[in-house]
What we know:
By secondary structure, this protein is α/β, with parallel strands linked by helices. The chain has helices spanning 32-41, 53-57, 61-66, 85-97, 113-116, 128-149, 171-180, 203-213, 229-239, 256-264, 275-293, 295-302, 306-310, 317-323, 329-336, 379-385; strands spanning 10-11, 16-17, 21-23, 45-52, 77-81, 103-108, 156-161, 186-189, 220-223, 243-246.
Amino acid sequence: MSISASFAPLTTSRFQVDPPVVLAPMAGITNSAFRRLCREQGAGLYVSEMVTSRALVERNEDTMQMVTFAADEKPRSVQLYGVSPNVMAAAVKILIQEDRADHIDLNMGCPVPKVTRKGGGAALPFKRNLFREIVRAAVQTSNSETKRLGVDPVPVTVKMRLGIDQDHLTFREAGRAAAEEGVAWVALHARTAAQMYAPSANWEQIKVLVDDLAQFGVPVLGNGDIWSAADAIKMVNETGCAGVVVGRGCLGRPWLFSQLAAAFRGKDIPANPNLGEVLQVMRRHCELLIELYGELKGCRDFRKHVSWYLKGFKVGSELRSSLAMVSTLSEMDSLIARIDSNQDFPVAADGPRGRTSGERPVSLPEGWLNSQDELGTFAAELAAAELDVSGG
């Protein structure tokens, strides 16, 4: 399969993203080992797991490790989550003064109840003044600090959802505010917080935001239901978005990035690997996690990936269960040797992986929806929304 057209890279003040493909931050997934694995497969921008601005300012040990990148990881992309303009500014200042990032992405779309019930994540853009102040603090701090240091500006971007629910859509107003404050791009996951990860993403709303932000010259990236290279090209063609953000689609499928790179450059798309090749990628993933965490912790971290890699293949339940309990690399090698690897990639392997939770009411602070402008007594709850432990 090939795509006849080619697409322009994303160009920022510090780097280009070519092809215009971004790995979505996923808690417990997009650590440095997984990012390296994806980089080995193809080109793009690979964003860190989410870190909280408060934990960064307080120099939480785990958080500081999460914003420490390998020497060959360029550009270095950090996703920040915060609810205070002042704390956000302080966090951005650390990243720039200590030369820890080439790109800062602001998370304004987390739908997790423990965050939204305190007014954070996807609930926060509803408070439009606070949203604008946080974005402004990040952009202005980035611009002023890089200018003072005499280095290229570090672009700030925003990732968000359509809104809280269908009755409280925030993406258009928030997108315009972010553009006015000087972000490099806006990424839109085309679902509300209430929709979580089902039903299907509403790509038509991505086009709405593309049209809204055209007057500012601010690109929009689309996110939601990118399971294949064909999906990505279809999204760009239907919505006019400048690129795509890939989350669950690459779970157990890191080679998707090589297919996306080919598709966006108008080249033949590599075929999906056979089971033997998948097993080689699995082993490499586990090996990288062991390098990062040590053998026992690395193997434990790998276990959750097994079902995603093996989805659709004829591998017995006993072997699947054993791989999902692996504790050493040699144990994994022994189990892999027992698998019939001469299997083509199955059609049944396509489709959703990872979180599949469907629509449900969004947990919010009592009275949160009474006003888009007034914070009132919500300040304390917002502070609690910014968990002191990063990663989601």
